[in-house]
Amino acid sequence: MGEDTAIPRRAWLALSVTTLVTFLVVVDISAVNVAFPSIQDDLNTTRSTLGWIISGYNIMVGALLLAAGRFADSVGRLKVFLPGVFVFMVGSLLCGVATNVEFLIGARLVQGLGGAVVASSSFAVMLPEFPPARRSTAIGFAGATGALGAVVGPALGSVLIEAFNWRAIFLINVPVSIIVMVIAPRFLRESKDPNAKGRIDGVGVVIGTLAVGLMMFGIVQSESWGLGDPRIVALIGAGFVLLPLLIRRSRSHPEPLLDLELFRFRSFSSTALGVVFYGFAFTSGALVNSIVLQDLWEQDLVVVGLAFMPGPLLAAVVSPLTGSVADRIGHRWVLGVGCVMCAIGSLSYVLLLDETPTVWTRFVPISLITGVGIGLTVATWSSAGLSDIPQAKFGVAGATVNTIRQAAYALGISVTITLLATGVDQFDLSAYRWAWTWIGVCFLLAAVAVVATFPSGNSQDRLEPTT
Fold first, then answer.
1. What pLDDT, in 10s, does the model give residues 43-68?
2. C-alpha distances in angstroms, 155 versus 32, 291, 421?
3. Same domain for 443 and 350
4. Last residue of a domain, one of 136, 166, 188
């Protein structure tokens, strides 16, 4: 391994600090699902109202990612990352002391603000420490941390709730965030876009945030109002109307919210296209499988938790290895094969599962196929989007991909819930099969998109990044 590809010790330390925060955020998100019944009983509220604990967080993150990424590149990644951790900590503390559901939802919005800042700046503040040829390796390890957090979250949440109460899943974030804020300045160096003057397009920030926020709100609310409701059409339509205004401003402003130059890189535009279809399927798959286990097969939570562990654990093992492979051979076929494996898993559920519970003989073995596919793709999308992007644009580039992915997650969930609602009752297998088919087709479309449009070779091979 040459000097230009050797990873220095400082890079590993920087990766450790940022992935600790990523792990914390993912654990918190997955643990909240386990805490739903306890929160509902303690705060005496309905499940639909409680759903805004997740929806409000997701809308806040989706709406603010672009603005946070632009500020990180312009002002300084470390200057943005540390306040983001602080805001996430404050939001967690407020969640832990909430006395009613309205206060809890408001606290989750604060948490979402911190989550958006952390998500948009964590890769950007860490990646400059890595040689360009090894950055996919770094993102692969970060992806493995996220996958591991998804496994640990429900188990840790159950232990904390049993030992204390649901508030502990939020309050545990406070001391860990303090540790990160203390050690981060020692291991993370400041970086920014050297051409930035700090004159960010304020009007563009407002337009872009409103556009994404309105569309995300409409998509999320469509789960209860219905996709054809005039209010949903108006909300999503208003968001789309604002997008041309944002693009127009972005063409002329020296520091636009949306950097259109990014789409001149084939690797970035291909990633943006592929991640739309991937996002439609990714979170929808977990939702359908959870409902099948609990409603169709009537399994208790212990079995559900154990059945969900093998796939993410396998993804956590595969993900860091995938980053190293992508650094050597490129991202096209890694993503293509991974998406096909995810599709095979989803379509296998259609063909091999029925009303008879076969948790360990069929469901879990099939989930291992999907687990390998997730390990090949979930973090690789991020490294693919950044593979040819200049270091100065890391923040806004990562935030743009994540914003697209968040919106796709929300829309995919809405479509999936609509398909599940076509069933006569919770025991109607046809509705689940339609949902699995939708998910499998979306994964296949993601594979086709990336294989057909992503440039060949790795980033070192591409002397002309725009071709």
1. 888 766 777 887 788 788 888 888 88
2. 11, 18, 30
3. yes
4. 188
